[in-house]
Design goal:
91 residues, mainly alpha, 59% helix
């Protein structure tokens, strides 16, 4: 345990590091502000709780993460494929 952790006022809370692309972080920051969260951390905690409490949605989040990585690598799938996969027809 580091000295900073030993002096943490709440020993029940752990700090974690998360590595994501800068472009995705911009989307996350825009999302938490638009949705009225007080901070990025509050928004991420909410999203993690939702993923844990509703694991049936985990496939969507996994696919979203893979898509974000593909986009970063210059690869992507078409909107038609997304509609077919998730059954949305917003046209």
């Amino acid at each position: 345990m580091s000295e900073a952790d030993a002096n943490d006022p709440d020993p029940e809370i752990d700090r974690i590091n998360l590595r994501i692309s800068r472009s995705f972080l911009e989307v996350v920051d825009e999302s938490w502000r638009e949705r009225g969260f007080n901070s990025r951390s509050e928004f991420i905690r909410y999203a993690l709780r939702d993923a844990v409490n509703h694991p049936e949605g985990a496939g969507f989040w996994k696919d979203l993460a893979i898509s974000e990585a593909d986009l970063t690598d210059g690869e992507a799938i078409s909107s038609e494929e997304m509609r077919a996969t998730y059954g949305h027809d917003d046209e």
